[in-house]
């Protein structure tokens, strides 16, 4: 789910010293939204957890602290990055492209002449950064604000005019094929087409049409302009410096103080607030989800799709109007320490009159992001009893780093939670275990190592190479094993980083089967977080200046292969739309580092999996999939999607557009399944057709083991 959770966190007091594995598509200032953006650990449904925000309004200009931050990053990038690439003209040119792309990905705002003028200074970006000069960010952004105002004014004019939906024309959907408009007339025509597309989409989605649709777009465009004008210095600094950092690789970036605070929430899986996921929709703050067990859930009055239009502090504080306010600023108003009171002015989704809801803030545990286990009964054993299969849904490799650093015995740990689940499975007499990593985008390197160790006795889990070429081997040194029985690891294109370490090690040791998409994401690098306040001031209460997330190492499987750009290949592949989505894999990202390999480590393989077993199970699965109506629908969806992907344009003639939509919407079940997988379920692990096939693979696997043991 895209949105923001309302709560309050604290920033770690010292530099984070735990190696981290991330997959974080960059946050942008533009109108483009990312449907799957896990902040530090890819939750493939985004819950961005925002904290402190500076004053609203256009960014005034670079601050003294910005110069310190820029100079520090200019030093650390070439020194500390895995590639040791100098901060030079090549990096400057890459950063220039990335910054423009972050602001105007569909080339709707800037003129070509604007870009040509900006480009005159692009080779100087590296030199300027070394002196702490970030003036290009402000120069470009000031023009961007001007162009946004002009384009929105144009859009509002176009909306007042009749539009011809019988005309045979198209709009280019691939941004790589677009050029910036050269004249006002060209910009006007591009927006005319964009508005026609937006109106057609509203009608196709049965949201609205006619005058109501026009009114909706008027509000959407004006709200966007207001949001862009509310960009503060921290946001602009983060976007600009991240463009420079991402010129090194997609996972190096600058994290503002608010983003750094979010890091702590996602690792600890807790916050303080009311427990509601919010989203901005056309200027309104809309409740998208109520967190079970949170303050809002206990109160019971705030509902999904309610609109929050005002926020007041305490029992009698002034109600502040939050319509058209930046979402992160609204979050800041609603958040607060446990035990304090917040008042929300709400427009109920059911159409009843607006009302004031008073809620006392509490500590909220993000249980939808923690490990969950559930036992399912499947098929029938020779003795007539059903097989008992334990499924573990693991959205991330979380770890309470501050708790670990302080030596708290029971700090929050993925490995500890999964061990408890496995112990419970053993007590319940499960026959096999399925570890579901399909929406797991990574997290703590140490947790990935420790968790893999729950399934093997000991040995190397991952090898890590630094910028000097030195290779370190990280072993599981704990000989205790929590689960020795049959194991399947479920993967998808969204399984990244730490997930790939576990899947790769399980495959190399032949300890279990890898099932799912053709391969995992393909992120094979390690990042560290450098707290810039501590880096600059070395004081216990150093100012909050954000952090540099820096790629420092590349990791390798026990067999010596990197997962970088290639991922971990499934032993048994199942049809899925995620296998074919654009822009998901590491290889799709700008300036991704290449694949390579090193010498294998020494390790002892298990007898659990061999080529004969895999071939047998794969053949049986293919037979079932080919006879499954559900999987056949998925294959048809894939064919339709691939056919549409080949088309670089979208028709704007209503008849053709609706025909295309009808074809794409012929079956919505796969889309619903993927959305449910993305967001997780509050009602436990869903037993759908996909999981049923994995159950069948497991029962075949169990039967094969019985046959093998009988020999």
Structural class, please?
Answer: alpha+beta
- Count of strand segments: 24
Major sheet: 7 strands, antiparallel
Q: What is the CATH H-level superfamily of the largest domain? A: 2-enoyl-CoA Hydratase, Chain A, domain 1
Q: What value does the Rg take, in angstroms?
A: 26 Å
Low-confidence stretches: 5-18, 22-56
**Which CATH class of the largest domain is shown?**
Alpha Beta
Proper CATH architecture of the largest domain: Alpha-Beta Complex
Q: What is the CATH third-level topology name of the largest domain?
A: 2-enoyl-CoA Hydratase, Chain A, domain 1
**Discrete helix count:** 21
Helix content: 25-40%
* Shape field: globular
Mean pLDDT: 87
Strand content: 15-25%
Distance between the termini: 50 Å
Count of spatially separate domains: 3
Task: Describe the fold and architecture.
With 711 residues, this protein is an alpha+beta fold. It has three domains: 88-237, no CATH class; 272-365, PDZ domain (Pdz3 Domain), CATH 2.30.42; 368-526 and 554-710, 2-enoyl-CoA Hydratase, Chain A, domain 1 (Alpha-Beta Complex), CATH 3.90.226. It contains 21 helices and 24 strands. Helix 5 (135-159) crosses helix 6, helix 5 packs antiparallel against helix 7 (210-229) and helix 13 runs parallel beside helix 14 (445-452). The longest helix has 25 residues, at 135-159. The chain starts with a strand and ends with a helix.
